[in-house]
Amino acid sequence: MEYLKLLFGEGEQLTTWQMSARMAVLFFVALVMLRIAGVRTFGRKSAFDTVIKIMLGAVMSRAVVGASPFGPVVAASLTLVVICRIVAWCCACNPVIEKWVKGNETVLFEKGKENIRQMKDALISPEDLKEGLRLQIKSESLETVQKVLLERNGEISVIEKRS
Q: Hey, how many other C-beta atoms are within 10 angstroms of the C-beta on 104?
């Protein structure tokens, strides 16, 4: 027990080496949690995933700096990851839950017209729309575009007209 105390320290008065040791252990704990949560959970850019990442980082950082005991931090982090996994499973099985958690895509442009109301609701300006076009189809012209969507993850996608 004294060896672990020497290696990982206790409380907030930690040495550089003790914080480094804690970080090394938490790195591998986080990898295990990633496997439990599923790769897709942390590979997306949705609001749900961002909340999980921020919360997990905030909780785990407390163990690195010694602000909270190591074991309870790992337990709390694991709880968050398991809840995330359960919510993701519920989303995959139930479209209503998925819509509530992940939201919907928003049509910004369709049938030759900008949807000004949807753009305002989504806080997308005409310049943001042009930026999306440039990034997706390397053009600012809407002439070749059938539909522009603001996806659930916040990215703009463009569907071009068929030839």
A: 11
Distance CA 132, CA 148 (A): 9
The first and second tokens of residue 81, run together, are: 């990851």
The confidence score (pLDDT) of residue 10 equals 78
- Each residue of 17-49: pLDDT tens digit? 988 999 999 999 988 888 887 766 666 667 777
* Residue percentage of the chain with pLDDT more than 90: 34
Q: How far apart are CA 74 and CA 120, in angstroms?
A: 42
| Residue 48, number of CB atoms within 10 A of its CB | 18
Half-sphere exposure of residue 61, counting CA atoms within 13 Å on the CB side? 6
Which residue type is seen at 111?
K
Would you give the DSSP letter of residue 161? Answer: P
Using the 8-state DSSP alphabet, how is residue 81 labeled?
A: H
For residues 94 and 112, give the distance between their C-alpha atoms in angstroms, rounded to a whole number.
34
